[in-house]
Amino acid sequence: MTNSLSIITVNYNNADGLSKTIKSILNQSFKGFEYIIIDGGSTDNSLEIIKTHKEHITHWVNEPDKGAYNAMNKGLRSATGDYVLFLNSGDLLFNSATLEQVLKNITPNDDLIYGDVVLRNEELNTERAQVHPEILPFSYFYKQTICHQACFIKRSLFDRIFYFNEDYKISADWEFLIYAIYIEKVNFKKVDIVVSVYDMGGISSNSKYRLTTIREREKTMDKYFPLFKEDYKIFTSYSSKRFSQLKRIESSVFLRKVVSVLFKLMLFLVPNKRN
Question: What is the Cβ-side half-sphere exposure of residue 18, based on CA atoms within 13 angstroms?
Answer without folding.
Answer: 27
